[in-house]
Specification:
The complex is a heterotrimer of chains A (about 350), B (about 400) and C (about 170).
Chain A: E1 4-11, H1 23-34, E2 47-51, H2 54-57, H3 63-66, E3 78-81, H4 85-97, E4 103-111, H5 117-121, H6 137-151, H7 156-170, H8 184-189, E5 192-194, E6 197-198, E7 207-216, H9 217-223, E8 228-237, H10 251-260, E9 269-271, H11 277-287, E10 294-295, H12 310-323, E11 329-336, E12 342-349
Parallel strand pairs in A: 2-3, 2-4, 9-10, 9-11
Antiparallel strand pairs in A: 1-7, 1-8, 4-7, 5-6, 8-12, 11-12
Chain B: E1 7-13, H1 24-39, E2 48-52, H2 65-68, E3 79-82, H3 88-101, E4 107-115, H4 121-125, H5 138-154, H6 159-172, H7 187-191, E5 195-198, E6 200-201, E7 210-218, H8 220-228, E8 234-243, H9 257-269, H10 275-278, E9 281-283, H11 291-298, H12 307-312, H13 329-332, H14 336-352, E10 365-372, E11 377-384
Parallel strand pairs in B: 2-3, 2-4, 9-10
Antiparallel strand pairs in B: 1-7, 1-8, 4-7, 5-6, 8-11, 10-11
Chain C: H1 33-43, E1 47-51, E2 58-59, E3 75-79, E4 82-91, E5 104-111, E6 118-122, E7 135-140, E8 153-158, H2 166-169
Antiparallel strand pairs in C: 1-2, 1-3, 4-5, 4-7, 5-6, 7-8
The chains are: A alpha/beta (about 350), B alpha/beta (about 400), C mainly beta (about 170).
Chain lengths: ~350, ~400, ~170
């Protein structure tokens, strides 16, 4: 495979509601930060790929106008996915493997505040059998947590530990929405929200956006002092119906991890797109992460979860830590769909 | 192109119709099974699935790839969802092609679909944004002024649009999968159809269709194997995407730069210097009849201002020098999300010699063209009977 | 679909051909800073565009950025309530929510002082007399009905000036 690296990353200061600016106004400063801020001329970009959801925006073809934030003139080679931005990055990485694209910009955005996110996400389910029930993602995650707890895969204490660790990390991340010192025992004293989940086991509702620039070979070395090289990237999907899956495992993460070569070397840090606390435990197991791996040093999606964007942020966060010398080998993970239906795994290394 | 040559070895589509009684999964699966059957493959032969459609509101399902993973045999495989505008079917095929060309996968199934009957398409497109200028007129109202500008610039007479509509609807009679089969259509019946958005008549607009299209793409070894088995593949000779802003000062919406650049790119990749002579047949995205002469110029087949003369002279008829939309095109079938992929697939069918009654004898090189939005998203590929 | 063979127990059973799932989702949209400012001005019967600092083109309605340069637009430009029809279409179909009497004319109107046309209605003239180059002026709704929406302009009508030269709007034709 051709060597491709993350060379720049920018994200918003994530918030519960960004009501004074629209998507273009949210993205434009990030583009500037990711390009000019990193000394990357706009005309070096050969491909742009973006990610967003019409259902979040409440408007068909909502992505069309957001491209204005880049200023696509003269006309550019460009594409859009209705998946998390991590998959937009995958599409750009594939383009680069063909040899003619050297620098690509990926952006993703998600404002959950315009609608009722639990109702909106319920529209992802099989429209004939599950959709009419309006089953929402928190309820489905609770169902998954129940299965795991009863199977003894994890405990509520472990879930609380996950929350406390992420919140502690979130306090050190200026872009995170939540963060702070919390006592796991105190968390367990809080009432259940959608049993067995407590509010803190669930991700915050977030408005946010992110931009990542990737570059191949010499272009990456030129644009970054220490590029974060993508050594492996793969994604897999599982059956949609929850009843067809073992919800205590993430088989598709295991498959993607094997192909991305997670086990080929020691992992220093991992950024996991596990929106619910118990899902971090499931994903950690699926990736085979050893004790001592620094998991979600950014605070992860439990501290900021812009839909369609949080997976791309994991790649950006992991890459930034590599580039700043905070580790030599990292795993970034992204998920999509109910109860971790679809997963992407990316291995990043410094040189 | 990339490291690997790309071959199209299987093509399938549904009968396009206003209401397909199958489920969403049933419709995409029917097209996929036909493509697999055409390729002599089964689900387990496929490494990855790439699916495209736009927008989600049309079926009322958010990110339908999640629900369709089971029906498309994608469990345990990569499933990728593309979502560009009207060009989505083309963009989707290009992602599938890239996955082969890059050497990442050997056999990729790509599918695009739309079930407009599942929801109200006009409703889905008319979510009114309180602070945006009122549109007053729908899609036809958006494009009609640009068509009028084209007529003013080129001096094209009024009947050109009628000729295109008549040609495509007559071609559709030769395509069993086409939605509209208007036996007895005549120049006068098109001319006398209701003027909707002057200068666009009812019979010069596309229908709303349910339908799906699927293709199986392989690497060079797969293409050689198909050829050896007597199922000639189509070879991908070039792919290109271009986008430009929807609205900007001085934007030429009659002859958009993005379309010109996209065509120049894809022709250069395919080694084509004289498209009119070297391309044997074109499947062009023409949702309103007047876009045929406009795109003939935009793509470089006709000099600026002359596209309409090609139409008038019969150049784009099946008997002409550059047959356009032998399948009947978007004017005869418009499952929006699939319409772009149908253009790409029909181009491949022509060079494989599998287009049946609407086959152009001896077609060796074909262009598939898709566009979307306010004429600002473009996707194209050139396919050939000969290995590049 | 027809290529599925049903088990014996299901043969002869009336198939379910469709189900109906009413779905209602409510959204609160964000206009954004630039649109918000523009609409506040409209509510005060003013049309204020913005100029791009790079290409100097004046955008109306402003979206806060220049779509070709990808930079913020901040300089306000007060625009006239008159303009030139650059192209148009005659609408003969009744659209949902439209109370217009058909046929009516939707036109691209280049406001004087701006560089991009807006779409609006042309009234107070027979539809078959509308033409490109025609000079028009905004007709506002009564003052007590004016609000932060472009529908505060009821329509445009000919203002009696001689046609603009093609040269004056050729970049937008």
């Amino acid at each position: 495979m051709r060597d491709v690296a993350v060379v720049s990353f920018a994200q918003t200061h994530h918030a519960r509601e960004v009501s004074d600016i629209n998507e273009v106004e949210m993205l434009m400063p990030l583009m500037g930060e990711a390009l000019a801020g990193s000394g990357i001329p706009k005309d070096r970009i050969d491909f742009v790929c973006s990610a967003s959801s019409d259902y979040l925006a409440g408007q068909p073809f909502s992505f069309v106008m957001s491209l204005d934030a880049f200023g696509p003139w003269p006309p550019i080679s460009e594409s859009h996915v209705d998946m998390d931005g991590a998959w937009a990055l995958y599409e750009a990485w594939v383009k680069m493997q063909m040899g003619k694209t050297d620098v690509a910009l990926i952006y993703a955005y998600g404002k959950s505040s315009p609608g009722d996110i639990r109702r909106v996400l319920s529209r992802q389910m099989d429209p004939y059998t599950v959709g009419p029930l309006w089953l929402d993602p928190v309820s489905m995650a609770a169902l998954q947590a129940r299965v795991g707890l009863e199977a003894g895969t994890f405990t509520v204490e472990q879930m609380a530990e996950v929350v406390a660790r992420n919140r502690r990390a979130g306090a050190t991340n200026p872009y995170a929405q939540l963060g702070g010192e919390v006592d796991p025992a105190a968390l367990l004293a809080e009432p259940e929200f959608v049993a067995p989940l407590r509010k803190h086991d669930c991700p915050p509702i977030t408005d946010g956006a992110a931009v990542v620039v990737i570059a191949a070979g010499d272009a990456a070395r030129e644009l970054s002092d220490r590029p974060a090289w993508i050594r492996g990237i793969d994604h897999r999907i599982e059956a949609h119906a929850l009843g067809l899956r073992d919800l205590t495992r993430s088989v598709s993460t295991e498959q993607a991890a094997a192909r991305a070569g997670v086990a080929d070397g020691p992992v220093d840090l991992a950024e996991l797109h596990a929106p619910f606390s118990h899902q971090e435990l499931i994903i950690g197991d699926a990736l085979g992460l050893a004790d001592g791996v620094d998991v979600n040093p950014s605070g992860g999606p439990l501290c900021a979860n812009p839909i369609m964007t949080a997976g791309l942020i994991r790649i950006g966060e992991a890459a930034t830590r590599i580039s700043r010398g905070g580790g030599d080998r990292a795993v970034a993970h992204a998920t999509s769909g109910p109860c971790l239906q679809q997963n992407l795994v990316c291995v990043l290394e410094g040189e | 192109m990339g490291k690997e040559r790309v071959a199209i070895v299987g093509i399938g589509q549904t009968k396009h119709q206003s209401t397909n009684d199958g489920s969403i999964a049933g419709v995409v699966r029917t097209a996929a099974r036909r493509a697999l059957g055409d390729a002599g493959m089964t689900w387990s032969d496929i490494d990855a699935v790439v699916i495209g459609k736009a927008p989600d509101f049309f079926e009322g399902v958010m990110m339908p790839e999640l629900y369709l993973a089971d029906a498309l045999g994608a469990v345990g495989k990569p499933m990728f969802r593309v979502h560009t505008a009207g060009s989505v079917g083309g963009s989707t095929a290009i992602v599938a092609s890239d996955l082969i060309a890059s050497g990442i996968h050997e056999r990729v199934l790509t599918v695009a679909f739309e079930k407009q009957s599942e929801s109200e398409a006009m409703w889905a497109l008319s979510v009114s944004m309180p602070f945006q200028p009122p549109m007053h007129a729908g899609a036809g109202g958006y494009f009609a002024p640009h068509i009028r500008s084209y007529m003013a610039r080129s001096g094209a007479p009024d009947h050109i649009g009628i000729l295109v509509a008549l040609k495509d609807r007559l071609n559709a009679l030769k395509n069993p999968y086409a939605h509209l089969h208007e036996e007895g259509i005549t120049f006068d019946s098109v001319k006398d159809s209701m003027m909707l958005w002057d200068p666009i008549r009812y019979s010069e607009t596309c229908p709303s269709s349910d339908g799906a299209c699927a293709m199986v793409l392989t690497n060079e070894a797969g293409g050689d194997a198909a050829a050896a088995a007597g199922r000639a593949p189509a070879w991908v000779k070039g792919t290109a995407l271009r986008s430009e802003p929807t609205m900007f000062a001085g934007r030429d919406q009659v002859n958009p730069q993005g379309g010109q650049d996209c065509a120049a790119d894809v022709f250069a990749q395919a080694g084509i210097t004289d498209p009119l002579r070297e391309i044997d047949v074109v499947e062009m995205y023409v949702p309103f009849s007047w876009f045929e002469p406009m795109w003939l110029e935009n793509l470089g087949f006709a000099p600026i201002g002359e596209g309409w003369r090609y139409v008038e002279d019969g150049v784009t008829q099946m008997t002409g020098e550059l047959p356009v939309n032998c399948s009947g095109g978007v004017l005869s079938s418009n499952p929006i999300g699939a319409s772009g992929m149908l253009r790409f697939a029909e181009a491949a069918m022509q060079v494989r010699g599998q287009a049946g009654e609407h086959q152009i004898d001896g077609a060796r090189t074909a262009l598939g063209h898709a566009y979307g939005g306010g004429s600002q998203f473009f996707a194209m590929w050139v396919v050939g009977a000969d290995k590049p | 679909m027809s290529d599925v063979t049903l088990p014996a127990s299901l043969q002869g059973v009336e198939p379910v051909k469709s189900i109906r799932t009413p779905a209602r989702l409510d959204y609160v949209y964000t206009a954004g800073r630039a649109s918000s400012r523009f609409l506040h001005n409209v509510a005060n019967k003013r049309l204020v565009g913005q100029r791009c600092p790079v290409c100097h083109k004046v955008y109306v309605p402003p979206r806060g950025s220049c779509p070709t340069d990808g930079v913020p637009t901040e300089e306000d430009v007060e625009l006239a309530h008159t303009g030139t029809v650059t192209s148009f279409c005659v609408v003969n179909v009744a659209f949902m929510g439209t109370l217009m009497e058909i046929p009516y004319v939707g036109a691209l109107i280049l406001l004087d002082g701006s560089d991009i046309p807006i779409m609006h209605l042309i009234q107070e003239v027979p539809y078959d007399q509308v033409h490109s180059g025609m000079r028009v002026e905004a007709v506002w709704v009564p003052d007590d009905e004016i609000g932060p929406t472009l529908e505060s302009i009821r329509h445009f009508r000919p203002n009696g000036e001689p046609d603009a030269s093609f040269e004056s709007y050729k970049d937008n034709a």
